[in-house]
Amino acid sequence: MDLYDAITVRFEGGATGVLSGSGTVPKHCGFQIDVRIFGSEGMLLFDIERERLEIRRYDRDDTTFPMQPGDGEYVCIEPVERFADICLGHEVVNDAPGEVGMRAVEVLDSAQRSAKSGQVEEV
Q1: Cα 71–chain centre separation
Q2: Residue 87 contacts by C-beta under 8 Å, 6 or more apart in sequence?
Q3: Chain centroid to CA 45: how far?
Q4: Most exposed residue of 13, 57, 67, 77, measured as fewest CB within 10 angstroms of its CB?
Q5: Which tens digits make up the pLDDT trace of 39-70?
Q6: Which residues contact 1 (CB under 8 A, 6 or more apart)?
Q7: Across 40-115, where does the E strand assignment appear?
Q8: 4-10 and 16-22: which strand pairing?
Q9: Phi and psi at residue 62, in whole multiples of 5°?
Q10: H or E segment at 114?
Q11: pTM confidence score
Q12: Can you tell me the distance from the alpha carbon of 75 to that of 117, in angstroms, rounded to the nearest whole number?
């Protein structure tokens, strides 16, 4: 089992993405999701541990979305329950269509091939 992973991705259009994860977070810390997106107008910061969602702009027209204690709590069971409901044919909104899963698997496959070959691998 992988305890630490990091992937650098170059997207069509030239954007660069960095994905990382660890299986060694202390159990009392809960799930960790920290997303930072940097763009031509500024950055978006989303962190469920610190319960933070902010847009920071170069023109200083920043937006901070107020969050209450517990807003970032995530027990990770919802996706499993939703998947079970879909499999059972229940009427639910599928926020993770097959194409999203397929694209994620393609990125993971190319990362595995890159680790093995030591070269940049295409998706």
Answers
A1: 18
A2: none
A3: 12
A4: 13
A5: 999 999 999 888 999 999 999 999 999 999 88
A6: 23
A7: 42-47, 52-57, 63-64
A8: antiparallel
A9: -75, 155
A10: helix 98-117
A11: 0.73
A12: 37
